[in-house]
Amino acid sequence: MKLHTSPRAPNPRRVDMFIAEKGIVGIAREYVDLNAGAHRTPAFFARNPMSRVPVLELDDGRHLAESRAICTYLEGLHPEPNLMGVDAEERAFIEMADRQVEFHLFGTLANWVRHTHPGLAPLENPQFPDFGLAQKEKMLEAARILDTRLASQPWIAGSRFTVADITAFCAVEFARLVKFKPSDAGLTHLAAWRDRVAARPSAQL
């Protein structure tokens, strides 16, 4: 298999952390230069018409896009250590937490960064700074909810580290582009959780 990816982008980082947590080896990497527009070429478009990374190229030549879908596929191939739930009930609650993070924290944060950071203008053209700042407020609301949740449980989805923690960590780290840190916003539980995740080997990639 081959992963078409970009090392500085947050969604590819989600997949890289997932692979590292699983201890999966043997997946080749082909790096896509987003700033050069390599994700908009006909060759890449044939892999993913949405022109987004990452894309996992399977051994049979098919291409699997979307970070969550790639992680689900890899979880099926490598069920241990488990990151998505051991039965239907746990899978549902982990997916709920992961989706909440993806839609309400990651999505709004990405819009904030992409529409306000000058370095991302080539990727988000045109930028709408007012929209970006409005998304910042929505992101902060989601971050406060997570901070409250983490006051009563150690990890995003409950008592153990899961894919939801990977998604949330990659989101929070991406916010460093706009100099956002949970500790600066008074989100002490989210900040402590972030430091715990940052200490894991998968976060060092």
Structure keywords:
alpha+beta; 205 residues; 2 domains; four-stranded mixed sheet; 7 helices; Glutathione S-transferase Yfyf (Class Pi), Chain A, domain 2; Glutaredoxin; 4 strands
Describe this structure in words.
With 205 residues, the chain is an alpha+beta fold. It has seven helices and four strands. It has a four-stranded mixed β-sheet with strand order 2-1-3-4, with helices on one face. Helix 5 packs across helix 7 (188-198). The radius of gyration is 17 Å and the shape is globular. The model has no long low-confidence stretch (mean pLDDT 95).
Helix-strand blueprint:
Layout: E1 2-5, H1 10-22, E2 28-31, H2 42-47, E3 55-57, E4 63-65, H3 67-77, H4 88-116, H5 129-150, H6 163-174, H7 188-198
Parallel strand pairs: 1-2
Antiparallel strand pairs: 1-3, 3-4
What's this model, at a glance?
51% of the residues lie in helices and 7% in strands. The chain has 205 residues and is an alpha+beta fold.
Helix content: 40-55%
- Which outline best applies? globular
CATH topology descriptor of the largest domain: Glutathione S-transferase Yfyf (Class Pi), Chain A, domain 2
Gyration radius, to the nearest Å? 17 Å
Read across the widest sheet, the strand sequence of neighbours is 2-1-3-4
Largest sheet: 4 strands, mixed
- Mean pLDDT equals 95
What is the H/E string? Answer: EHEHEEHHHHH
Number of strands: 4
Query: What's the number of structural domains?
Result: 2
> Could you name the ranges where pLDDT drops below 50 across 5 or more consecutive residues?
none
Q: Roughly how many Å apart are the termini?
A: 20 Å
User: Structural class of the helices, strands and pairings?
Assistant: alpha+beta
Which CATH first-tier class of the largest domain would you pick? Mainly Alpha
Work out the strand percent. Answer: 5-15%
Number of helices: 7
Could you say what the CATH architecture of the largest domain is?
Up-down Bundle
